[in-house]
Amino acid sequence: MTQDRYDIYKEDVIGRANVTDTPELVQYYKDLEQFEAGALWNVANKIEPWEPKSQSVPVLWRYRDLRDYVLRSVDLVTPEQAGRRVIYLNNPGRQDVSAAVGWLYSGLQVMHPGEAASAHSHSSSALRFIMEGSGAYTVVDGHKMTLGANDFVLTPNGAWHEHGVSAEGSTCIWQDGLDIPLVNAMEAGFYAVHPDLSQAVTYPVNDASHIWGGPGLKPTLHDWQKPYSPLLKYEWEPTYEALLRYSKVTDGSPFDGIIMDYTNPLTGGPVMATIGASMQMLRPGEHTKAHRHTGSIMYQVAKGEGYSIINGKRFDWRERDIFCVPSWMFHEHVNGSSSEDACLFSFHDLPVMRALNLYFEEALVDNNGHQIITE
User: Fold this and answer.
1) What is the model's pLDDT at position 20?
2) pLDDT tens per residue across span 171-216
3) Taking 80 as the threshold, does the pLDDT of residue 13 lie above it?
4) What is the pLDDT of residue 5?
5) Which of 99, 98, 147, 104 lies closest to 125 in space, CA to CA?
6) CA-CA distance, 15 to 251, in Å (whole number)?
7) Banded pLDDT at 314 (limits 50, 70, 90)
8) Cα 306 vs. chain centroid, distance in angstroms?
9) What is the mean pLDDT of residues 352-375?
């Protein structure tokens, strides 16, 4: 079949049902409905598209727009009343599942000094990325970790965890990232509150960092058997230092600049089975080329300012802003400064895509690898 004939076939036969409704067919469809069945040719292109068609849309959530509203919630509800005092990010195309993008959930949580949320566990995997404030901490299965700005902490599925801010600290805001929509889509969600409402700290504070945070080192004697990273907390300072060192010996990715993945120090794989995380650095004036891939990504600006072009639309961002890139949408990033680097933290569902052999990637070949801005 020639390419021209194939294109006609694709458009006229597969792109839509090439079947003319007749009274007999209409009745046939109605007859099938009584048995909770239907004709595949009426839905084939919807359920088996030629390429991924995300329901999500690119969104930029400006921190300067949301911060006052996040802080206002402190005067309106207590952690005990709300369970978790969070303002969630709602993608216009995914409002039916309260997702920020694809099958990922995101929200901004706030706590005052001396406040703590009850210990709980759930089927969803989660992480927290600290945006501002001091004195934040998280306890995961008895491991207590203190947290500073641009640190992030894991609260894996099934683990008892709780959050709070020490009385000596300041008001803290962090981003929550979870796979709630994915777990719910698989109808596998459980949630439980700790019987004592709080768990005992049974290990030295920050023990995970002291045991597993050595550069390229693994303790010879360990008994970690859990399916997620034992490091639990990933600190900003060593991460940024690693990016700077890496930038001295590599040109980096043409699509993401200097990028490094947070990993499980035991396996070298992602930090959790369903959520991965990365940090990337764009050098002064750097403009990456565009590519697209399956899987959704949530970005938070950890440092600097610039803009990203997502499916032809420009989104200008600065420190603490959050934006998303839906699956199979072309995207490229630009550092708007000629003298300072910019850093983007991201979490994503790429571990799921890769585990299920669904990860595909494609570079933009037109216009020297850059998109034409249409908005």
Assistant:
1) 86
2) 999 999 999 999 999 999 999 999 999 999 999 999 999 999 888 8
3) no
4) 47
5) 104
6) 43
7) very high
8) 20
9) 96
* More confident site: 6 or 289: 289
Round to whole Å and give the CA distance between 62 and 59. 10
Q: How far apart are the first and last CA of the chain?
A: 39
Average of per-residue pLDDT values in the chain: 93
- For residues 196, 198, 204, 205, the Cα torsion angle rounded to the nearest 10 degrees is 180
* CA separation for the pair 117, 128 (Å, rounded): 14
Q: What is the amino acid identity at position 317?
A: W
SS3 per residue for the chain: CCHHHHHHHHHHHHCCCCCCCCHHHHHHHHHHHCCCCCCHHHCHHHHCCCCCCCCCCCCEECHHHHHHHHHHHHHHCCHHHHCCCEEECCCCCCHHHCCCECCEEEEEEEECCCCECCCEEECCCEEEEEEECCCEEEEECCEEEEECCCCEEEECCCCCEEEEECCCCCCEEEEEEECHHHHHHCCCCCEEECCCCCCCCCCCCCHHHHHHCCCCCCCCCCCCCCCCCCCCEECHHHHHHHHHHHHCCCCCECCCEEEEECCCCCCCCCCCCCCEEEEEEECCCCECCCEEECCCEEEEEEECEEEEEECCEEEEEECCCEEEECCCCCEEEEECCCCCCEEEEEEECHHHHHHCCCCCEEECCHHHHCCCCCC
- pLDDT higher than 60, residue 107: yes
In a 13 Å sphere around the CA of 79, the CA atoms on its Cβ side amount to 16
